[in-house]
Amino acid sequence: MLFDWWWLRSPGKYSNSAAGVDNNGSLISTSYGYNQNSWYVDGKGGVRPALWLDIKSLIHNDSASYAEWVERCKHIAEKNKLVAEEERKLRKYHEADRKLSAKDYFGALKIFKKLDDYGDASSRVDEVQKQIIKAQELKLWEEREKEKKRIKADQERIAWKEYEREKQREAEEAYKLNKYQSAIKMLESKDYEAAYKEFIALGSYRDAAAIARTAKKEQLVEEQRQAEEKRKAEEKRKAEKMRRAEAQRQAEEKRRAEAQRQAEDIRRAEAQSKMWQMQGLCKYCGGKLSVFGKKCKICGKQN
Fold first, then answer.
1. The three-state (H, E, C) secondary structure of the chain, written as one string
2. Contact at 8 Å (CB) between 106 and 132?
3. Is the terminal CB of the chain with fewer CB neighbours within 10 Å at N or C?
4. How confident is the model at residue 92 (pLDDT cuts 50, 70, 90)?
5. % of the chain residues with pLDDT over 90
6. Across residues 273-295, what is the average pLDDT?
7. Pseudo-torsion of CA 136, 141, 146, 148, nearest 10°?
8. Which residue has the higher pLDDT, 54 or 101?
9. Is 53 in contact with 43 (CB distance < 8 Å)?
């Protein structure tokens, strides 16, 4: 009995089916093999087993039958080659489908091009090429979107950096302004040295350099004025010291002169008193003494 078709071990078009061979030797890859109930072989199909047979023991020895059998075997062998080739192409076809599902478009296209004369491979080539174009367009669009996002991110990063720099500049400006105002107050309070240091630290901020030069000049003038005042104070102190020394010297000379005058007066008084005593007069005032008692008739003192 010749069957209309038989199963192969190769997978079919679907995951729950196996490929088969039709009665004309062409490959069938549709839905033979499995239904919802059981594996089945209907009345027109079967399974072709692979067996090792001693062909010569199965045929008669007459040469005509053997030659016919050989020709038939050659014919079957050719069909088997065709079936094997069909199986190979089917496997490649399924491989291309898997690559297509995995979005390996170029791999699938390469296989479909090799299978150009098999089934709908030529139309699948056009389909894959369209998918490649779409994939390339999608990739290009994604790259453009990615580039846009990158540019936007760069712009946002640049804007943020600029914002941070602006904030830093504002903070530096506020700090320098505070230092500037503090230095001005130092200048107004005539603390020229501290003001000069602050203005030098401010560098090129506003007119800090010019004010620093002015502060330096004012500092030098102030130092000169203070030095002059110190010199004058020192001279005044020395003059006052000399005046006090001179006054002390003069007072000492006056005291000595007074002491000498008093001593001279005492000496003179003693000499006068002695002279008066020698003359028989009162030794105190030179008055005449009484005859009795030697009492001065003028001062009344007893001699």
1. CCCCEEEEEEECCCCCCEEEEECCCCEECCCCCECCCCECCCCCEEECCCCCCCHHHHCCCCHHHHHHHHHHHHHHHHHHHHHHHHHHHHHHHHHHHHHHHCCCHHHHHHHHHHCCCCCCHHHHHHHHHHHHHHHHHHHHHHHHHHHHHHHHHHHHHHHHHHHHHHHHHHHHHHHHHHHHHHHHHHHHCCCHHHHHHHHHHHCCCCCHHHHHHHHHHHHHHHHHHHHHHHHHHHHHHHHHHHHHHHHHHHHHHHHHHHHHHHHHHHHHHHHHHHHHHHCCECCCCCCEECCCCCEECCCCCEC
2. yes
3. N
4. confident
5. 21
6. 81
7. 150
8. 101
9. no
Contact assessment for residue 217 and residue 233, using Cβ atoms and an 8 Å cutoff: no
Q: Look at residue 247 and tell me whether its pLDDT is greater than 90.
A: yes
User: pLDDT at position 25, please?
Assistant: 66
Give this prediction's pTM.
0.37
For residue 178, which amino acid is it? N
Query: Strands 18-22 and 5-11: what pairing?
Result: antiparallel
Single-letter code of the amino acid located at 291: V
Q: What is the mean pLDDT of residues 84-92?
A: 84
Rounded CA-CA distance 123/121 in Å is 5
